[in-house]
């Protein structure tokens, strides 16, 4: 009889442990999305969510579910696309038929986009120095300042082509490229700000 009772008690205990484990597993699966879903849900908080998903989804396995890695990856993508645009604008500055005010605008844009690339590279290096510690807020302030400045560089380039006198193929081609870069950088800045605000250590 005692043996039977012990067996029943053991059986019930195993059943409770099994049910608890199953419930915990279910909660984890429901509340902890896979990397692709993390990227998609994160992108919904940006100004350009469709572009965000298009540019970052391929890196979901690298980002995993890390806010820090999401910001670093978004900045890295921004650097790559800004460099590509810088090369394009530089080629356009040497194109035939570009003269006067339009040539000056293109040359200024080459300088602005070049500055943007450097600021973004600084931001990635600085973000790589962030960790749990007293200097986190200081590093993140630098990152936010440089990414914001890179975005300003992009917009300054676009401002140079304002006005009806600048209507043309060169203006259209450059604006399309730089606007794309500005939107990618804007999304990256959103993730930088999100990572900065979510970190528990905010005091310098």
From TrEMBL:
Keywords: Signal
Domain of life (superkingdom): Eukaryota
Family as reported in the entry's similarity comment: Belongs to the PMEI family.
NCBIfam families: PME_inhib
CDD domains xrefs: PMEI-like_3
Name of the featured protein: Pectinesterase inhibitor domain-containing protein
PANTHER family, sorted: PECTINESTERASE INHIBITOR 9, PECTINESTERASE INHIBITOR-LIKE
SUPFAM superfamilies: Plant invertase/pectin methylesterase inhibitor (SSF101148)
Residues spanning the signal sequence: 1-23
Domain (Pectinesterase inhibitor) ranges: 34-191
SMART domains in UniProt: PMEI
One Gene Ontology term of the molecular function aspect: pectinesterase inhibitor activity
Annotated source species: Sphenostylis stenocarpa
Xref: InterPro entries: Invertase/methylesterase_inhib, Pectinesterase_inhib_dom, PME_Inhibitor
Lineage start: Eukaryota, Viridiplantae, Streptophyta, Embryophyta, Tracheophyta
